[in-house]
Amino acid sequence: MAIDKKQLKEYIRQLEAMLAGLSWEESAEIIQAKLIDYIFGLGERRPSLTELRREVKRMFSPEVQKLIEATFREFSAALDMTNSMYSEIGGAVSRDAARIRALEKVARTRFGAYEAESARQIAEFIKRDLAKGLNERRLRRHIAEIGGKAQFYAETIARTSVKGYSRAAKLEKARIGDVKYYEYVGIRRAATRPFCLSLIGTTHNLTQIRGMSNGQGLPVEIYCGGWNCHHDWEPDPFATESTAGRWQEEQSGKKNPRTIRVFSPRALEIVP
């Protein structure tokens, strides 16, 4: 008997709906509007870099806080969903579990670093533009560009955090239920990372998974292929052994090929 694919499909559907709700588009637009008002309110005055950082941070902080609160609401929703849909595996997982608490701390740290780094980069960007004496049209275009990048990174942190949180909850339930093996699940797309392509459909124990590297410095058991990865480790209570095979080095990419370490040559297959 294999994993319950119907249950997995519904779990993924509900989780993807949560992730889609973590949009920072409105906040990015609010920040852009405030930046434009601030810049054109300066007149001929040219503020110091310190002042610019302070002002940008003042605009960012409330919007980042909104996203943190939304992310933590989805943490709770993901935990409740995991406990409900995987009730047959182990007992209920609490937010007091060490693994769960640790991920909440990691998320806050990442948002804090994002806020500080964004304020620094945007302040330096504005100072350079002011020094160049760009006209209003070009300034507005530049503000829109940096706003778009800020939105992308904010949403990436939020969605990767919630996805990792849900994986951690499943892993914790599997640990409680004494499940030893996990199948790497998800669809194959043209943009799928070679690391993920080579693992989809294979089964491994936790020791093996913890020995894997996705090349991004993120633990594979929690973040799979890395930032924005939509694959998952599905607990398989019926598996009795890992997939036979070995990790090997392959050349990936026609332009600027690089050596990658993958579990199987499937990583090099062309996906339509």
Uncertain stretches: none
Secondary structure tally: strands: 5
Categorize the overall geometry.
Answer: globular
Tally of distinct domains = 2
Strand order of the largest sheet: 2-1-3
Helical stretch tally: 8
Secondary-structure content class: mainly alpha
Residues in helix, %: 55-70%
* H/E element order: HHHHHEHEHHEEE
For this structure, the quaternary state is: single chain
Largest sheet: 3 strands, antiparallel
Distance between the termini: 30 Å
Calculate Rg over CA atoms.
22 Å
Notable characteristics:
272 residues, mainly alpha, 5 strands
Question: What does this molecule look like?
Answer:
With 272 residues, this protein is mainly alpha-helical. The chain folds into 2 domains: 5-176, no CATH class; 181-268, no CATH class. It has helices spanning 5-20, 25-41, 49-85, 98-132, 136-176, 194-197, 206-210, 220-223; strands spanning 181-185, 203-205, 232-235, 248-252, 258-262. The chain has a 3-stranded antiparallel β-sheet. The chain has a two-stranded antiparallel sheet with strand order 4-5. The model has no long low-confidence stretch (mean pLDDT 91).
List the topology elements.
Layout lengths: L4 H16 L4 H17 L7 H37 L12 H35 L3 H41 L4 E5 L8 H4 L5 E3 H5 L9 H4 L8 E4 L12 E5 L5 E5 L10
Helix pairs in contact: 1-3, 1-5, 2-3, 2-5, 3-4, 3-5, 4-5
In summary, what is this structure?
This protein has 8 helices and 5 strands. The chain is mainly alpha-helical.
